Amino acid sequence: MRAHVLLIAGIAALGGLLFGYDTGIISAALLFIGESFPITVVGKQIVTAAIVAGALVGCMGAGPLSDRIGRRPTVMVAAIVFMIASVASTVAGSVASLTAARLVLGLAVGAASQIIPVYIAELAPAARRGAMVVMFQLAVVGGILVSTIVGWLLGGSRVADGLLGEGGDWRLMFLLGVVPAAILLIGMIVLPESPRYLALKGDVAKARAILARLRPSAAEVETELAAIGETVHVEGRWRTLLSGRMRPALIAGAGVAMFSQITGTNAVIYYAPTIATNAGLGQNAALLTSLVVGVTIVLTTIFGTWAVDHWGRRRLMLRFLPGAVIGLAMIGVAFAHGAPTGAMRWVAAAGLLGYEVFNVGSISAAIWLVGAEVFPLSVRGKGMSLVALSHWSFDLLVTLTTLSLVQGLGTAATFWLFAGMNLLAWGFVWRFVPETKGRSLEEIEASLQNGTFAAAR
User: Fold this and answer.
1) DSSP per residue over 319-388, as a string?
2) Which tens digits make up the pLDDT trace of 77-104?
């Protein structure tokens, strides 16, 4: 695999870092926004959920846009929106203006989640496609880790107040998102367009020239172009995507996206400091807990990057999800009689880290990969839009209800509920998700045509 391909995937994956940073930084910022203007528990949930609501619109708009103007220009548009919305969040003077800025930021997050995995998958060779697409998810969790480090370092800092006025700590947290957005925009200027998109639009000569820079031999280029040519059809419509022939791909892609959210991973990421504070920990200890979670999910996603191409996407999820069930059950036991004390704190910590390892290292690592692989070229942009829509819809549901669930059901019952969702996710993967390891995108498309898609286990 040429270094050029890795460079392309690395630069494109910066959109994942923005995705992770902008969704993760809110967990630290929520602890300090109340110092600048009044905000209730409901207000905190609305501000947190605004980025998710925006992502719902962004992911649906990015598919048709990428089919019209190209994968690469769509990523560049998302980078520009990232920059504008980060500045707007920084200067927000009320809950309403901050919510509006986070809503616009969500447009870019949703677009990035839809288009970047598709862009990387369409450029990557089949044997290394898993690891390269999971680089996007690695960048997402890397962005979350960066957000926890920034939140920990800036939390309660008064140095930023002198630069940005009252509430400078949380304002600077938001402003720092401009930096990776600018790097992404500059990097995308020099990257190529997807050769599969160019072939779909009839520009085979340019597709061949780009593949010649990415593949080790002319023979491989011609073989891949021939396979692409057999699957290039007139650009598919939404009704094509919703047809019976496409249903197995839609169930697999959108289902994995749904379970990646209702199994609780983002709930833990968004609200870990708040839940820890409610459990009796101070702000510094709560932020440190979030930092440990951030390090854990980066390390386990690195493992997932290896495992998707060596074990397979399906096998990784089936092996790891039972561990996530056990981890969440442990947390529920620790909180069964109120805030954990003594040895129960260690049980809760072990359960939390175990859950992050087994959930983030499996279904969270595979979500964007499975979605980017299972749809035919003619409807891939639109199909990935529905995958992202599933992700963000259920993310919004979880974001809006997690703190309320904790207040209404109690912490223990909430984590037991998420444990049940992980068990259901295992059953879904076993029944509906095929193995795509080592198969070209064209081979996967052919299995949809001949009815053998679900049989590839």
Assistant:
1) HHHHHHHHHHHHHHHHTTTSS--THHHHHHHHHHHHHHHHHHTTHHHHHHHHHHHHS-GGGHHHHHHHHH
2) 999 999 999 999 988 888 899 999 999 9
